[in-house]
Specification:
Blueprint (H helix, E strand, L loop, with lengths): L1 H4 L3 H12 L3 H19 L4 H7 L5 H12 L3 H14 L1
């Protein structure tokens, strides 16, 4: 993205943080985790498949990032969603 704007990645990151209050990585991670939650709720895809679709090379790293943001593992999140949809 920085290359397309003809600025350094350091400068772009600094401007994003200054304007939005979050780093580029924080924004990207939040967007990825939100998409993962949607996929966990709406598909029967495996955790590995979801990790790959949202841009993680490692299922383990994805699970760690997910748990850090959501407080539960992706597997537990999916189980919770499945249980609540069965109750409705």
């Amino acid at each position: 993205m920085a290359k397309g704007l003809h600025v350094s990645s350091v400068y772009l990151s600094k401007m994003i943080k200054q304007e939005l209050g979050e780093s580029y990585i924080q924004i990207l991670t939040r967007l990825r985790i939100n998409k993962a939650k949607q996929l966990l709720e709406q598909t029967d895809w495996s955790i590995r498949e979801i990790a790959e679709v949202i841009g993680y090379d490692s299922q383990h790293y994805f699970s760690t990032a997910f748990k850090k943001m959501e407080g539960v593992s992706p597997i537990r999140y999916k189980q919770t969603c499945t249980r609540s949809s069965e109750l409705n």
